[in-house]
TrEMBL record:
Pfam families: Self-incomp_S1 (PF05938). Signal peptide: none annotated. The chain crosses the membrane at residues 54-76. It comes from Coptis chinensis. Belongs to the plant self-incompatibility (S1) protein family. The keyword Nucleotide-binding does not apply. GO terms for biological process: rejection of self pollen. Its main location: secreted. It is found in: Secreted. One of its GO terms (cellular component) is extracellular region. This is S-protein homolog. Keywords: Membrane, Secreted, Self-incompatibility, Signal, Transmembrane, Transmembrane helix.
Length: 209
């Protein structure tokens, strides 16, 4: 027996019937008896069986795509805004990246901002992290740290499409849109311990002259 094999499907040729090929690139090939039996069993499937198989596949796809909140995050563009408000004259050096994207080294002056956008993946596993450092003019030390600036599994629900992070003198702050935009600490700056000899005196109380 001969069949036409196509890029997306094939149909069996009978002696007095020719299939109507609408798409694909097809070629005429001879097939074995075993292949004839396989094709016959596939063609004998009832419409109800085909519909049932389709529904199973559809349910599986929706289960994978659904998020905790019940929506589908694929295709939604999300933005992150990272603002330097540490203090006048302080430059915040940032290097943010994900497993797929590297935003490069940026130097943010006071009130400057870095922003980027992306689309979350099927499993809501998208994550960006940042290596940051800045010079503390008050204590004369270099502040260095790294933190997760965006985690889809938390932030899809917490800040939706627009997530703002503000670097201040004591910490990096974020906002919870589910609680009226409540400001909270996302990351507290690690500060090195100062030697006793370099600690500034708060007052002269107790000193006997």
């Amino acid at each position: 027996m001969y069949v036409y094999r196509c890029t997306s499907f094939f149909k069996v040729l009978a002696a007095d019937h020719f299939p109507r090929i609408s798409v694909g690139i097809c070629r005429r090939e001879r097939i074995s008896t075993d292949e004839v039996d396989t094709i016959s069993s596939q063609l004998s499937a009832t419409p109800m069986e085909s519909c049932f198989k389709f529904l199973i596949v559809l349910v599986a796809v929706l289960a994978v795509c659904s998020t905790v909140s019940g929506g589908i995050s694929i295709g939604i563009k999300r933005h992150v805004y990272f603002v330097n408000q540490i203090g006048a004259g302080v430059t915040l050096n940032t290097h943010c990246k994900s497993k797929d994207d590297d935003l490069g080294l940026r130097h943010l002056a006071y009130n400057d901002m870095i922003t980027w956008h992306f689309r979350t993946d099927f499993l809501d596993a998208t994550m960006f992290w940042c290596d940051v450092d800045w010079w503390d003019n008050k204590t004369k030390v270099q502040i260095k740290g790294n933190f997760h600036i965006y985690e889809a599994r938390y932030d899809i629900d917490a800040c939706g499409k627009n997530c703002t992070r503000i670097a201040k003198y004591d910490a990096v702050y974020a906002f919870d849109e589910n609680n009226g935009g409540l400001e909270y600490i996302l990351y507290k700056w690690p500060r090195p311990k100062m030697p006793e000899s370099t600690k500034p005196y708060s007052s002269l109380k107790g000193i006997v002259l």
